[in-house]
Amino acid sequence: MPLPSPFFERTSKLCTSMSYKEWSGYYAVKSYETAYVPEYFAFRHSAGLLDVTPLFKYSVKGKDAASFLSRVMVKNINKLKVGRVSYLCWCDDDGKVIDDGTVMHISEEEFFVTSADPSFLWLKRYTRGYVVEINDVTDSICGLALQGPTSREILRKCTGYDIDQLKFFAVTEAVIDGFDVRISRTGYTGDLGYEIWTENKNALKLWDTIMDAGKDYDILPAGLDALDITRIEAGLILKGADYHNAAHVLIEDRKVSPYELGLGWTVNLDREPFNGQAALQLEKEKGSFWGTVGLDISWPELETIYAKYGLPPEVSGEAWRTSIPVYAEDDHYKQIGYATSGTWSPTLKKNIAIAILEKPYDVIGSQLQFEVTVEHTRHLVSAEVCKTQFFNPERKRSNPGLETVSA
Amino acid sequence: MNKYDAIVVGGGHNGLVCAAYLAKAGKKVLVVEKRHVLGGAAVSEELYPGFTFSVASYVVSLFRPHIIRELNLAEHGYEVIPMDCTFTPSLDGDPGLARWSDASLTRREVSRLSRKDAEVYGEFAIAMTAISKFTKEVIDHPAPDITSYHPRELKNLMRLGQAVKKLGPEMMHLNTKLLTMSAVDFLSMWFESERLLAPMSVSGIIGTFQGVRSPGTAYVLLHHYMGELDGAYRSWGFSKGGTGGISMACARAAESFGAEIRTEAGVAEIKMKNGRAVGVVLENGDEIEAKIVVSNADPNRTMLGMVGEDNLPDDYVTGLKRFKYRGSSGKVNLALDGLPDFACRPGFGGHLKGDITIAPSINYLERAYDDAKYGDFSKHPFIDCVIPTLTDPSLAPPGKHIMSCFVQYAPYHLKEGADTWPDRREEFGDTVVNTLAEYMPNLKSKILYRQVLTPWDIEKKFGLTEGNIFQGELSLEQLLFQRPVAGWSNYQTPIKDLWLCGSGTHPGGGIIGSGGELSAKTILRSGAV
Ligand SMILES: Cc1cc2nc3c(=O)[nH]c(=O)nc-3n(C[C@H](O)[C@H](O)[C@H](O)COP(=O)(O)OP(=O)(O)OC[C@H]3O[C@@H](n4cnc5c(N)ncnc54)[C@H](O)[C@@H]3O)c2cc1C
User: Fold this and answer.
1) Would an 8 Å CB–CB cutoff place B92 in contact with chain A?
2) Which of B122, B269, B92, B345 is nearest to B195 (CA)?
3) All CATH 2.40.30.110 domain ranges in chain A, comma separated
4) 3-state secondary structure of A130
5) How far apart are CA A257 and CA A289, in angstroms?
6) Is the beta carbon of B503 within 6 A of some atom in ligand 1?
7) I need a labelling partner for A90 at 20 to 30 A (CA). Which of A56, A360, B118, B334 fits?
């Protein structure tokens, strides 16, 4: 049975739709009202506040913390400066992805790790020989993601910390309303945004302070339905939807490598040994089998099919995450991959999906065929291969406050 | 060789869409706009420091999705945020009627008035969607010329015929009713509650000099029902940055295809040679030549103003003079120090975020029309308000708000003459604010700034003849192959190489982009450039 998060006292009152989802053992709001639409637009035009407590959270401390994390992650954490955050994944010995998450460098010998799956045991397994202490803080630290164009202004009102200083993928300790928080400029929406972490006992005060400060900035509490659309627009993959934890699957075919997932950029190969290094080295030399791409699914063709049935085109209200076959017309309609999640993008006005395709069909610009079901009947519409990062606004990484200071 | 293929007179959204399509086809295009800002009636301006107003049009629904796609408008900043609620406050102790995009919530609200109405709501929506499908065939193609035997026109007619046939007999009958009935009569076929009928019927009078019981207003209803946002029909939304955001996206798209745009470049006259348009003469005397001229200004302003009666055939002039403008709407824009509060539904809530309609009863609306019939503005007008800052905080400083109020009736022709409007402007503004303050008692104390636009102001500011918001009334006899003049609906004019592309052409007004799109496509097909 799922548990309430420390914010539940507030979120449950606002969640008039009573629409929850289980997220890692917690009740997580799907959408506060029956329609998630205002929440989606809050992420893109004002600010949305999302409870991210269910993420798994670890404190990694000790003299060898950096080299230990470098040993288990695909990235060289020795190079991560204090105050910086790294997005990355970690692999099994065969170089297949187990999970993805962030590593935040808090102080010289302290890191904060978030993950989608429980990772304590997995981390612990590799500590031998390292001076490092791992604490599972999943149940004692709660978190809120404040995402959207007005999020910076809202935080400015909440804390004495000069929020303009916090660059994209940076982390800092700060004080809000007298209690300690950790603020990272991270998130899952691909927009300007922050995640604020604190001890559970401060949860309600944190929620109230942010909601209060946000009133003048059109803040809305937001749920997972809205988040799902933003993360697909941003081309951010999701464990459980776009890939599976390699340690949790029965068959080899369900495992993917970082290269195949589009996370090759997080891998640092030439360094001290790390999990999966040899296999990744080999894959790099030989080439990968799969590639992860974005698909831009033809709307006019979809419209034409619907029109044949006398229907206006329908877009599924929510993002979907069912596996949908993708075919190569030039190759006798061979199935060459599958889409893993997708959505209508209200911002881009496009029907988009994330897909895993056999190489070389993953070349940007290729035209493929995507299966749609209209009136119980299967059809094909064309889809163009594009980058997964469909939406990437300037404000996500810009620092207007800093720029004026230095100018 | 500095000669342009086309000069577009006017940088309203239709002119900009037209320019974008022509430029996309490789034509050398220049847009000349009289004002210092682009957008025409879809314009955003900072009227008061820190407050960006949608000065005229304020909500969006009709803009054609395929135009967004064909011109990559999303990449150029086209963003529309849907509204969730239509709220009709009341004064008699009732909490008012809020209709939401959540169907069950709406059903519950409406059942307070009538259980029957609450349940028929869904059937009504299906009927309107079915009819809208047909209407789409009409608005997404040039109007067929029913008098012509040209194969293209016949094909066009046939396509329409097929669409009608697809409607089925039941819908065909309904369509006929829609074309002839009044908004109230049409809606009364489904609904019985006056409190619901009143706010629903007002869509039938927007921009017209008619009352909700006047025959023909049912069609106008549809014009406001056929929009779609992201596949959701009949939904309205806010354009990010105000409705000027849409015009700016169109302008950026046009520029990305190579079009040039000049502001503060009003056209004094269309330059002609041997009965053909060969360019424009600007108000500052500059002359610019082009193979064709496309005017986004209304038909009256273009043909009678920039071309001149003497250069036009008589029957065309007669037709133009019969084309009804007779503006009936005004606009009051308010900058607020904080949120207003409704006496009937106090406090903050979703009802503030959408459309707020002052339409308490059918008689109220009819009385408002009565005042106008005899040459005065309504003592108790119909008002449609929005507070866009609750959705798009970029429009005003934190904690401050904008309230945009569209008002009817404000007849252009006051009985003392249109020119008396400037003397009555503030009185009109007071009437609007006083009416609103009955519902929102704290409103007056929140007002930081007020702009009042009478139809006379709308004419002067936007060049819209007699202040008609749609460049000519959207009544049935002024639509399709009769817009603006029978026989001249195909964006052409009696002057060779002079074309029209604004709302005064098929399919008419609203932020829709169709006039711009269809005129450009017609021009390109004709081989004129
Ligand atoms: C008060 C008001 C409220 C409205 N509300 C809504 C609404 O909420 N939703 C909606 O969908 N529609 C609304 N409308 C209608 C909608 O705004 C218009 O139908 C639409 O914007 C018209 O676009 P257009 O490009 O055809 O013409 P216009 O916007 O009229 O553009 C014509 C352009 O030509 C320029 N021009 C005129 N003369 C000259 C000249 N001599 N030289 C150079 N340039 C010239 C004008 O300055 C203007 O920029 C409203 C209109 C008004 C006035």
Assistant:
1) no
2) B92
3) 252-256+289-386
4) coil
5) 9
6) yes
7) A360
- B79 → closest Cβ in A218, A347, A350: A347
Bond into A149 cis (ω within 30)? no
Direct distance between the N- and C-terminal alpha carbons of chain A, in angstroms, rounded to an integer: 55
Nearest residue by C-alpha to atom 50 in ligand 1 = B57
Q: How far apart are CA A231 and CA A227, in angstroms?
A: 6
Among B518, B463, B525, which Cα is nearest to B140's? B518
The answer to whether the pTM exceeds 0.80 is yes
Cβ of B41 below 6 Å from ligand 1: yes
Of A153, A315, A348, nearest to B231 by CB-CB distance is A315
What kind of fold does domain A8-55+139-222 have according to CATH? Gyrase A; domain 2 (3.30.1360)
Long-range contacts of A374-382 (CB under 8 A, 24+ apart): A374/A302, A374/A305, A374/A306, A374/A309, A374/A311, A375/A309, A375/A311, A379/A305, A380/A327, A380/A333, A381/A297, A381/A298, A381/A301, A381/A302, A381/A305, A382/A297, A382/A298, A382/A301, A382/A329
Rg of chain A in Å (alpha carbons): 22
Tens-of-pLDDT digits for all 529 residues of chain B?
468 999 999 999 999 999 999 999 999 999 999 999 999 999 999 999 999 999 999 999 999 999 999 999 999 999 999 999 999 999 999 999 999 988 899 999 999 999 999 999 889 988 888 888 777 788 888 887 777 778 877 787 777 777 777 778 888 888 888 888 999 999 999 999 999 999 999 999 999 999 999 998 998 888 777 777 776 666 899 999 999 999 999 999 999 999 999 999 999 999 999 999 999 999 999 999 999 999 999 999 999 999 999 999 999 999 999 999 999 999 999 999 999 999 999 999 999 999 999 999 999 999 999 999 999 999 999 999 999 999 999 999 999 999 999 999 999 999 999 999 999 999 999 999 999 999 999 999 999 999 999 999 999 999 999 999 999 998 888 888 889 999 899 999 999 999 999 999 999 999 999 999 999 999 999 999 9
Nearest atom within ligand 1 for CA of residue B330 = 1
Complex confidence, ipTM = 0.90
**CB B45 within 8 Å of CB B52:** yes
What amino acid is encoded at B310 in this protein? D
Topology annotation, domain A57-136:
Alpha-Beta Plaits (3.30.70)
Chain A residues with CB-CB distance to B65 below 8 A? 299, 349
CA distance B351 to B358: 13
CB contacts of B104 in chain A (<8 Å) are 34
- A300 interfaces chain B, CB cutoff of 8 Å: yes
Task: Specify the CATH architecture of the domain A252-256+289-386.
Answer: Beta Barrel (2.40)
Chain B residues near residue A19 by CB distance under 8 angstroms: none
Which residue intervals of chain A bear CATH 3.30.70.1400? 57-136
Strands B329-336 and B447-453: antiparallel
Grouping H, G, I as helix, E, B as strand and the rest as coil, residue A346 is coil
What angle is formed at CA B18 by the lines to CA B16 and CA B23, rounded to 5 degrees? 90
Partner residues linked to A135 by β-bridges: A59
The 10 Å CB-count burial string (b at 16+, else e) for A299-338 is: bebbbebbeeeeebbeeebbbbbeebbbbbeeeeeeebbb
| B470 Cα–ligand 1 center, Å | 7
Q: Where are the beta strands (DSSP E) in A298-403?
A: 324-328, 334-345, 350-358, 367-374, 377-386
Number of domains in chain B: 1
Task: Give yes or no for residue B181 CB within 6 A of ligand 1.
Answer: no
Distances (CA, A) of A42 to A55, A85, A168: 22, 25, 20
**What phi and psi, each to the nearest 5 degrees, are found at residue B431?**
-60, -45
